[in-house]
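in:
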C-alpha cells in the first residue's frame, strides 16, 4: 500500500483549535505549544466573565434609599431630614463602590477584552469617574449622631468603628496616627481586608481639631489640630494606605497590609459649639440709620445651623481641603421632651425595652407609667444631655431595686412612676401574696394604669 506524503507536517498549529498559521491572523508559538489569536480572545472572554461574576458576588446588597430610611425609622426617633440625607448618601456611596468593583473586573488588571473596549467606545460616560462623598454631621451632644452612623453600618452589614479625633496626632508625634483608625476597622472586619475596605468609620469630635478663629494659639507645631486634618486628607479622599496588623506603625518589624480607602465611608460628627455665632454674624448684617432692615431671619440655634456654608466651617477652623472632602452636610435637631420620651419607648431597642428584658430574665415584669417616661425625658432635657443622659437617669432610678430584687422572693412586677424618677418616691414592687419586703411593696398584684 502506498503512503501519502504530506509536506506541511512541520507547519505550526494552534494547540487548542488545530488551525495553522495560514488560517489565523496571528499564531503565538512557544517551545512546546502554540495558540492563535482567536483562542486567546476566547480565553480572555472566559476570564473576564469569571471576574464579572466574582465582582457581582463581592458587590454589596444595596437597599434603596427609601428602604434605608424605613430601617432607620425603627431605631432612630425624629431627625427626618438627616435620615433622608444619610440614606441617599450611603446609597450613592455603595453604588459607586459596586460600580468600581464591576469596572475593575471588566478591565482585568488593565487589560480589557474586545467586548469591553467596544462597550467603552459606545458609552459616553465610560471614562467618567464618580468622586467619593463623605458625610459631616452637625448637632449638639445627645441628638444621635453616633447612633445614626452605627445603625447605618448595621443596615448595610459592613464593619463599623468609632474613633475620637481628639486622640489623633500628626504622624511622627506621640499619640495615635490616623492609620490606627484603619487598623481598628481591619480588626472589626476580623482581618478581612476586602470587608474592611467597604466599612464605615465614625470620626467623633471633629470640631475639636479645628483651629479656633483661624489662628494657632500655640507657639509649637499644631500636631493635634491642623496637623490631624492634613493627615486625614488622603484617607478621606481615597488612597492605598499601609496599615499595621498589630501594634503601630512606629513599632519595628510589625506586619502590615495595604488598604484602599476609596470604598470606606467616613462619617464625621461634632457639636461645633460657636458655629451658630459665625453664621449669625454672616446672616445678621444690617443697615444703619432709621428704618434699617434687620436681616437676621429670627432663626434659633436649632435652625441656624441649616444655613451653614463651607466659608462658615473654614472660619470655624477647618481647612478648605478638609471641608471639600465632606461634601454631604447634615444638621441634626436638638431633641425636645416629646422626642426624648419617644426615644425611651418607640425604637426597636428602646431603653425601657432593654431594662424590661433585663428584669424579665429574673421573672419580673417591669412597667413604666406615662408620667415616669415624661419625667425621665424632662430631666434629660433640663440637664442638656439629650438622649445620651437617659440611661444614667434610668440607672439612678432603678439602682436600689436592681440591687435588692435578685435576693427577694415572690416579686412578680416593678412599677416605676414619676415620684421614683424625681427621687421623692421609690419603685413599687408587686407581689402575688402578702410580702414582708420593704420600700413600697404592693401586697396584692394589681393592674397599673
Amino acid at each position: 500500500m502506498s503512503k501519502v506524503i504530506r509536506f506541511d507536517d512541520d507547519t505550526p498549529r494552534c494547540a487548542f483549535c488545530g488551525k495553522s498559521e495560514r488560517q489565523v491572523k496571528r499564531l503565538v508559538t512557544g517551545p512546546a505549544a502554540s495558540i492563535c489569536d482567536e483562542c486567546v480572545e476566547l480565553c480572555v472572554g472566559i476570564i473576564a466573565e469569571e471576574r464579572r461574576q466574582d465582582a457581582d458576588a463581592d458587590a454589596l446588597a444595596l437597599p434603596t434609599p427609601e428602604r434605608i430610611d424605613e430601617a432607620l425609622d425603627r431605631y432612630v426617633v425624629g431627625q427626618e431630614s438627616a435620615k433622608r440625607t444619610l440614606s441617599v448618601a450611603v446609597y450613592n456611596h455603595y453604588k459607586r463602590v459596586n460600580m468600581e468593583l464591576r469596572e475593575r473586573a471588566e478591565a482585568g488588571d488593565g487589560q480589557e477584552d474586545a467586548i469591553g473596549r467596544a462597550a467603552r467606545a459606545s458609552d459616553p460616560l465610560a471614562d467618567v469617574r464618580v468622586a467619593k462623598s463623605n458625610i459631616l454631621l452637625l448637632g449638639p451632644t445627645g441628638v444621635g449622631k453616633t447612633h445614626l452612623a452605627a445603625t447605618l453600618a448595621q443596615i448595610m452589614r459592613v464593619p463599623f468603628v468609632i474613633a475620637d479625633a481628639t486622640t489623633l496626632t500628626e504622624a511622627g508625634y506621640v499619640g495615635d496616627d490616623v492609620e490606627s483608625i484603619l487598623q481598628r476597622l481591619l480588626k472589626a472586619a476580623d482581618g478581612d481586608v476586602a470587608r474592611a475596605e467597604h466599612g464605615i468609620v465614625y470620626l467623633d469630635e471633629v470640631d475639636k481639631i479645628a483651629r479656633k478663629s483661624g489662628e494657632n494659639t500655640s507657639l509649637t507645631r499644631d500636631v493635634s489640630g491642623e496637623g490631624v486634618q492634613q493627615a486625614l486628607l488622603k484617607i478621606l479622599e481615597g488612597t492605598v494606605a499601609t496599615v499595621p496588623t498589630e501594634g503601630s506603625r512606629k513599632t519595628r518589624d510589625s506586619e502590615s497590609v495595604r488598604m484602599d480607602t476609596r470604598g470606606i465611608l467616613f462619617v464625621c460628627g461634632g457639636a461645633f459649639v460657636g458655629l451658630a455665632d459665625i453664621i449669625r454674624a454672616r446672616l445678621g448684617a444690617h443697615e444703619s440709620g432709621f428704618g434699617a432692615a434687620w436681616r437676621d431671619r429670627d432663626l434659633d440655634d436649632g435652625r441656624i445651623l441649616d444655613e451653614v456654608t463651607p466659608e462658615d466651617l473654614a472660619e470655624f477652623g477647618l481647612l478648605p481641603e478638609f471641608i471639600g472632602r465632606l461634601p454631604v452636610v447634615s444638621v441634626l435637631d436638638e431633641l425636645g421632651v416629646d422626642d426624648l420620651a419617644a426615644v425611651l419607648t418607640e425604637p426597636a431597642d428602646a431603653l425601657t425595652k432593654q431594662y424590661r428584658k433585663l428584669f424579665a430574665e429574673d421573672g419580673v415584669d417591669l412597667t413604666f407609667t406615662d408620667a415616669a417616661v415624661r419625667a425621665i425625658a424632662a430631666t434629660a432635657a433640663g440637664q442638656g444631655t439629650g438622649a445620651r443622659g437617659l440611661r444614667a437617669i434610668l440607672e439612678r432610678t432603678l439602682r436600689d431595686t436592681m440591687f435588692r430584687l435578685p435576693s427577694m422572693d415572690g416579686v412578680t412586677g416593678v412599677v416605676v412612676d414619676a415620684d421614683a424618677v424625681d427621687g421623692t418616691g421609690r419603685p413599687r414592687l408587686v407581689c402575688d401574696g402578702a410580702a414582708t419586703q420593704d420600700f413600697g411593696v404592693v401586697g396584692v398584684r394589681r393592674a397599673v394604669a
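note: DSSP finds 17 helices and 13 strands in the chain.
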